[in-house]
């Protein structure tokens, strides 16, 4: 749970599927490119069957939830002194580009996810509250891992900023502007 499924046309950088229930639908669609491969042929029925084996349905954030997620990201950025350069919150994923920070990226990702989840829970709009366990634990709406490419040049930075900023438009949503995001300037 929390990564592209076998036969997902978007592909994955994953090498292993550790869930038998999902692995039986095939290996990850391995890609080694940052370009979209979504248009490539795939077994749609097999991908849908894999989705039916998930412990929880895929999360689809509403507009209200997106606003709260962004507020959680803002709080984490303030607490951690992260400098957000671009943000896109879509129904099924987010993109957040931050400037270099001395803190380990695993800690930053965990911090961001925790504050965003807390914002959803505090507003009583966490999409996972219907799946509370017998111990009272609410599952995370986030994937366990994250994709974090490091930007090594000015050109890569411009490409990344444009990618994040254009992502909502590609998804046929309005362009997003977040008050706490400080656009990158060379």
General description of the model:
This protein has five helices and two strands; from the N terminus they run αααββαα. It is mainly α. The longest helix is centred in the middle third of the chain and has 18 residues. It is globular and about 45 Å long.
Question: Which terms would index this structure?
Answer:
2 strands; 5 helices; single chain; mainly alpha
Please summarize what this structure is:
The protein is mainly alpha-helical and 186 residues long. The protein has helices spanning 20-23, 44-52, 63-80, 105-122, 154-170; strands at 84-89, 94-98. Helix 3 packs across helix 4.
Overall shape: it is globular
Q: Average pLDDT, to the nearest integer? A: 86
Q: What's the gyration radius in Å?
A: 17 Å
Q: Detail the poorly predicted runs.
A: none
Computed structural class: mainly alpha
Tell me about the largest β-sheet. Answer: 2 strands, antiparallel
- The N- to C-terminal Cα distance equals 38 Å
Strand tally, please?
A: 2
Number of helices: 5
Helix percentage: 25-40%
Strands in their spatial order, largest beta sheet: 1-2
Approximate strand percentage: 5-15%
Order of helices and strands: HHHEEHH
Set down the secondary structure blueprint.
Blueprint: H1 20-23, H2 44-52, H3 63-80, E1 84-89, E2 94-98, H4 105-122, H5 154-170
Antiparallel strand pairs: 1-2
């Amino acid at each position: 749970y929390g990564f592209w499924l076998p036969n997902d046309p978007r592909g994955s950088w994953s090498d292993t599927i550790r869930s038998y229930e999902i692995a039986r639908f095939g290996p990850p669609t391995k890609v080694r490119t940052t370009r979209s491969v979504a248009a490539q042929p795939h077994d749609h029925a097999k991908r849908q069957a894999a989705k039916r084996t998930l412990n929880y349905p895929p999360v689809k954030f509403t507009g209200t939830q997106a606003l709260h997620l962004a507020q959680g990201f803002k709080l984490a950025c303030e607490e951690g002194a992260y400098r957000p350069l671009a943000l896109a919150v879509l129904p099924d994923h987010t993109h957040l580009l931050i400037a270099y920070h001395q803190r380990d990226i695993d800690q930053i990702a965990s911090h961001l996810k925790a504050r965003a989840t807390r914002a959803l829970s505090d507003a009583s709009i966490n999409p996972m509250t219907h799946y509370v366990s017998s111990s009272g634990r609410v599952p995370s709406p986030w994937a366990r891992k994250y994709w974090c490419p490091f930007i090594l040049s000015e050109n890569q930075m411009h490409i990344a900023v444009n990618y994040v900023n254009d992502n909502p438009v590609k998804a046929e949503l309005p362009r997003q502007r977040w008050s706490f995001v400080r656009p990158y300037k060379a």
